[in-house]
Design brief:
alpha+beta; about 160 residues; single chain; 4 helices; 5-stranded mixed sheet
């Protein structure tokens, strides 16, 4: 087997495949923040579109970066939070458990043209996820504001400058 820069040695128990971390089999996602890069889909015209399109695009970007983003799920935030938390744990047992969602009740706030008739709340798993969610939705051109613990208010697209 060769060694040197750019070559990773297999970790024990990895079946001979190189991995990013000890104990990780197959392909593992980068584990240092500095390794994250924007996805190609995040370089679209930001701020162009209605609130629904922008928020759905933000959720796509968050999913690419390992935050499970679920649109329009459940009527009650606490029940939806419990269901999503368990589903994320079941699907990614060694993952961070990061998630964000808005409820089906809040989904009714979107008008037929995709604009928001009233603010909606995004519910997320922990404060660090909230930072990523807020940064991403702002990058898409949406206005944000604080909400109760583990929520972020979205009140529509920011005016074009």
């Amino acid at each position: 087997m060769t060694s040197g820069p750019g070559h990773r040695k297999p970790h024990p128990g990895s079946g001979g495949r190189a991995s990013h971390r000890p104990g990780c089999t197959g392909h593992c996602l980068p584990h240092r923040v500095g390794q994250w890069t924007a996805s190609p889909t995040s370089v679209t015209t930001l701020g162009a579109g209605n609130a629904r399109d922008l928020l759905e695009h933000a959720f796509t970007v968050l999913n690419v970066h390992g935050i499970t983003a679920v649109p329009a799920f459940g009527a009650d935030p606490e029940t939806a939070r419990a269901v999503i938390r368990q589903a994320v744990r079941d699907t990614f047992p060694f993952g961070t458990g990061a998630y964000v969602f808005w409820t089906a009740t809040d989904d009714a706030s979107f008008r037929a043209d995709g604009t928001l008739g009233r603010p909606i709340s995004l519910h997320y798993s922990e404060p660090a996820v909230g930072v990523a969610v807020e940064a991403t939705v702002r990058q898409m051109g949406l206005n944000t504001g604080g909400g109760p613990d583990l929520t972020l208010q979205i009140d529509g697209a920011a005016p074009a400058s």
